[in-house]
Amino acid sequence: MTEQHSVGQNSTAVTVMGLGPMGSVLAETFLGKGQSVTVWNRTAGKADALVAKGAHRAATVAEAVAASPVTIACLNDYATLHQVLDSAGGALQGRTLVNLTSGTPAEARAATDWASEHALGYLDGAIMVPPPLVGQPGSVFLYAGPREAFDRHRATLELLGDPRHLGADPGLAVLFNTAMLEMMYTTLNGFLHGAALVGSAGVPAAEFAELALGWFMPVVLNPASLATQAPSLDEGAYPGDLGTMRMNLNALEHILRTSVEQGVHSDQPRLMKDLAERAIAQGHGAENYFSMFEIFKKG
Q1: How much is the pTM?
Q2: Does residue 71 come out as left (phi exceeding 0), alpha (psi in the -120 to 50 range) or beta?
């Protein structure tokens, strides 16, 4: 598909739609790196600061899309995305949309079908860093969809961070994002619950953090150690020579009992114990804790 360019447009032109905290940072990052930036927001006044820094304010969605070969959308959700872009009409044809809106894999795949109906190139993406890290070394952005569209706009996407193309399935970026957010929240909950446990004995959270984060996490739960186990998940091999699920159930029961004794919220450890019991009931008692993967794979 050949992209249409407006008169005077160059390869550094980009449009940003949705000027919430993240969208505004995206636009500002492009401006700071020499891009010609067009911005659009339903509340036009949110573009004032960016216009003062050199961005062009589009009066309509169609004008915004027509201003650049690629539009970066950072809106509330996919329903908003469709509501906004449906008003662009024929301006969508021949352009590329990079959608950084949060949602689900099914929504991303449906958006791809919608884009195809409008002759609009489409990449679905996920921002893996908070606003202050956008454009900084080490920041990562995930993308999924046609490789050709990704390669064509890679130079633009690299200005925001390290662009990782995950594959042609448009649902992969949001799926990876969801999986890693789950890791983040469960890790945070583990730390917070642990701090609450020792806090029930009057121990300051800072004292707990010194040992839990300064030693336990990097030594016992370090990423390299977990990474060595990843092939076992793919192979379905969980040898229990260094510890079995039954042994882990014993530890989980102690965590639950201690939580109850100390008057600390016990739903989280109770769920972990229940999952271990389910794994044992399904034949994983003599295997190691990574066999829990087989439980998580099932609906």
Answers
A1: 0.90
A2: beta
